[in-house]
Amino acid sequence: MGQAFDEIWGQGGPDDPRADLAALARWMREVPPHELKRRLQSAEATFRQLGITFAVYGDSEAAERIIPFDIVPRVFMADEWARLSKGLIQRTQAINAFLDDIYGERRILKAGVLPPDLIFGNAQFRPEIAGIRPPHGVWAHICGIDLVRTGPDEFFVLEDNARTPSGVSYMLENREAMIRLCPELFRNFRVAAVDSYPDKLLETMRSVAPPGAGAHPTCVVLTPGHFNSAYYEHSFLADSMGVELVEPADLLVDDDVVWMQTIAGRVRVDVIYRRIDDDFIDPVVFRPESLLGVPGLIAAYRAGNVALVNAPGNGIADDKAIYSYMPEIVRFYAESEPLLPNVETWRCREPDALKYVLDHLDEVVVKLVDGSGGYGMLVGPTASKQEIEDFRRALIAEPQRYIAQPTLALSTVPTLTDAGLAPRHVDFRPFVLTGAETVQVVPGGLTRVALKEGSLVVNSSQGGGTKDSFVLMDDGPVQSQVQAQSMGGMTQSQGGR
Question: Which residues form the Circularly permuted ATP-grasp type domain (predicted)?
Answer without folding.
Answer: 73-450
